[in-house]
Amino acid sequence: MDDTNDSQNTLTRRQVVAGGAVGLAGLSGGCLGPIQNVLGLASASQVSLRVVAPPVDWDRRANAIAGRLVSRLEQVGIDARFPLLPPKQFREQVLYRRDFDMYVGTMPVGRDPDFLRSLLHSTHTNDLGWQNPFGFTDKTLDERFDDQRRQSGSQRTGTIHDILRTIANEQPFVPIATDNAIAAVRSDVADAFDGWQRVPLREPIWLLGIDPVEGAEPRQTFRVTTKNDLPTEQLNPLVPWISEFDPTTSLLYDPLARRYDGSIRPWLAREWSVDGAELTLTLRSDLRWHDGEPLTAEDIRFTYEFISDTSLGSSDADYPVPRFRRQASLVDTVEVLGQRRVRMSIDASPPVTPMALTLPLLPEHVWQSRTDVVEMRAGLTRAITHANTNPVGSGPMALESRRGGHTLRLRRFDHHPINRDDGSELADRFGPLAFSELEMLVTPSDLNMVEFLEGGEADVTVPRLDNELVSRIESKESLSLATSSSRTLYHVGFNARRRPLHTPGFRRAVAHLLNKARIVETVFDGYARPRTVPVHDRSWVPDDLRWDGGDPEVPFAGIEDELDIERAREHFRSAGYYYADGGQLVY
After folding, report:
1. Co-location of 417 and 508 in the same domain
2. Mean pLDDT of 265-271
3. Spatial contact of 392 and 413, defined as CB atoms under 8 Å apart
4. Residue where one domain finishes, among candidates 442, 474, 508
5. In Gene Ontology terms, what is a biological process of this protein (predicted)?
6. Distance between terminal CA atoms of the chain?
7. How large is the angle between the packed helices 504-511 and 565-574, nearest 10 degrees?
8. Mean local confidence (pLDDT), 12-22
9. For range 122-146, the mean pLDDT
């Protein structure tokens, strides 16, 4: 009897303590300023945030969005700072060190919503690249991410709708807009080729879609200008923060399957079949690496093993490749059945399964020695940090020469299936390449890229031009304009590892400061689409989250583009924060 009473008394005391903790949390909404003041524990301090963004000459639009956001944060009483980071430092702080409060930038949006799993799953909070850079955690959402991988049809659609509603409610980041891909082409070059928009401009295989016009003068060298010098410095397809538009490593390295013409289709694979949880695949005949070595089923087995653990079991922990971890995680085992056949054990439903075939194949005889652990904390091996300046891939182009920071020259790999006149559907669709050489020229800015074309020093720009240059391009008879929709999402990212950004209420209050429609109209001149949720295909978006003149979940706290400051402040008060006499938002 006494033991029972003691137990009940102990339980009662624990409940009182727990209840008090819940009470404090409920009153403070994650911000203990009012309670601390009453108890005399601490003095309140103003909320202070750094919003990092790239400089104007790298991304004017991200810079402009950040400038507007900082101004609005200051209007609602937040001490906001706006440091500009060069591209390399921006990637390091956001995608590697996670050293930021908030940032404005771009990220690639996958065509299938399964990409959200690696972007937001709780298990990736300490990983690199676009694996949950926000430090966002939601265990229930984790389960839903796992569920959708094994579902099909309306069941999967319903799960995706639930996921998107949770994301919209918790706002781990604020989707702003997907921009239009814009490129300038010399008019004589545009007239000499067809198919400029056969493949969306910012897809890696964009240039594979063009064909020479019959009777036009053939071109040996195709000159592309870019302001991104990364491809001239390193050619490693495994780098976690490589651009979503990556024409270099995508032309050097090939997957088993690529997405084109609306679905994932065979590429280096000739065909595959799925029987339950098993996928059996056959390679095309006579495939070779750029160094002449045969590409076989053993290279497929090695690739999936290596991307799942780049230490190949030589360390106590696994060191997966961040950039392709999602695709590799769909495959449990790879069994070699012959020189050209493999059997894969797949942990996914039929709609998701083909995505497992979209990672780049790696030659075992080149990469098997790059297993040394370089940085244990970050999970890095030499496979990921190696510059790979002498790449050996199997893509339609091979490296000819490079000059770091200046130029990169690729040559056509005649042994590739699209360059062989073998009557295959792939050769008929894409081959042969319309040029023998591709030269990439690095320039300092978007304007310089266009000036290179005007001066006859280049043929086409990469499709990342600022929309402010459209009128200039259209006014020049010597230039033509190419545009298409893109999967590049401009967004505001939060570091949920830090106060007060760890609370959904605060993040939502910040989201209410952004007038997405006005940003699309003025910053992008209409060359963008506002987004409420981070998916590309509208068919995945539930009706209650579709854009209808405004964001249905976090509408702008103002009229036209004029912020209603009191209304905006009320969102922060509703989230549990409060204002000092001087109007500062404080803890």
Report:
1. no
2. 97
3. no
4. 442
5. peptide transport
6. 48
7. 170
8. 30
9. 95
Cβ atoms of 178 and 529 within 8 Å: the answer is: yes
135/122 Cα distance (integer angstroms): 7
Q: Residue range 470-482: average pLDDT?
A: 96
Query: pLDDT tens digits, residue range 223-243?
Result: 999 998 888 889 999 998 776
Closest CA to 516 of 539, 534, 543: 534
Number of domains in the chain: 3
Same domain, 262 and 291: yes
Q: What is the largest CA-CA distance in the chain?
A: 101
CB-based contacts of 580: which residues, under 8 Å, 6+ apart? 44, 46, 586
Q: What local confidence, expressed as pLDDT, does residue 137 receive?
A: 96
Q: What is the pLDDT of residue 243?
A: 65
Looking at the structure, do residues 410 and 522 belong to the same domain, yes or no?
no
Closest CA to 541 of 107, 157, 17: 157
One-letter amino acid at 145 equals F
Instruction: Indicate whether 24 and 52 sit together in one domain.
Output: no
Angle at 117 (CA atoms; ends 66, 516), nearest 5 degrees: 30
Tokens of 214: 């019959």
Domain of 391, in residue numbers: 228-442
Q: What percent of the chain is modeled with pLDDT above 90? A: 79
User: Please, are residues 257 and 269 in contact by the beta-carbon 8 Å criterion?
Assistant: yes
Per-residue HEC secondary structure of 507-557 comes to HHHHHCCCCHHHHHHHCCCCCEEECCCCCCCHHHCCHHHCCCCCCCCCCCC
- Single-letter code of the amino acid located at 580: A
Distance of CA 465 to the CA centre of its chain: 19
The DSSP bridge pattern shows strands 407-412 and 397-403 to be antiparallel
- Residue 437: per-residue pLDDT: 96
Query: Which residues is 289 bridged to in the sheet?
Result: none
Whole-structure pTM over 0.70, yes or no? yes
Q: What is the CA radius of gyration of the chain?
A: 26
Same domain, 14 and 80: no
The average pLDDT across 77-103 equals: 93
